[in-house]
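for the recovery benchmark. tokens below, seq after
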């Protein structure tokens, strides 16, 4: 899905986790939002990839879009160093990544950005390269932009409001 939709899902995860550990609310929210777009560091077209293009171009060349960075192993590797500092923040980062993988697992894209890998995510990479997912939502299509994104944003906002 698009970066904005991933961020909306990350916000939902962040708001709920921040509610369980209010003292770490801000870093938890930031980690969940970062996690929600972190796997797309594998494409220079993404929000994060445009910013860190030397990294994203390299990762794209090696793994392709929706490759290794869309796996459970990547989530564990990303969480490990954060866990040493703060387990609740690491959980938030992992939750953000989990929302990204789940959203990509039900969405499919077209065009050059998806030439190498199509629908779904390689959850068990590098053990298995096969992709888990269903072709349910077209990336940047009307279902994503007119239904999923606004409802997820509303839900995140309402959940956040309930915390106050
Ligand atoms: Zn992705």
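predicted aa per position
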């Amino acid at each position: 899905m698009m970066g904005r939709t991933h961020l909306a899902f990350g916000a939902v995860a962040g708001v709920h986790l921040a509610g369980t550990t209010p003292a770490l609310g801000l870093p938890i929210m930031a980690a969940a939002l970062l996690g929600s777009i972190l796997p797309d560091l594998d494409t220079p077209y993404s929000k994060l990839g445009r910013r860190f293009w030397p990294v994203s171009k390299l990762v794209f060349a090696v793994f392709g879009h929706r490759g290794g960075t869309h796996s459970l192993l990547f989530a564990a590797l990303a969480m490990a160093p954060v866990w040493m500092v703060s387990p609740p923040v690491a959980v938030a980062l992992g939750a953000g990544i989990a929302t990204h993988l789940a959203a990509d697992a039900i969405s499919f894209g077209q065009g050059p950005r998806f030439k190498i890998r199509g629908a779904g995510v390689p959850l068990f990479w590098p053990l298995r390269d096969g992709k888990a997912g269903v072709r349910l939502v077209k990336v940047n299509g009307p279902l994503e932009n007119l239904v999923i994104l606004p409802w997820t944003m509303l839900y995140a906002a309402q959940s956040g409001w309930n915390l106050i």
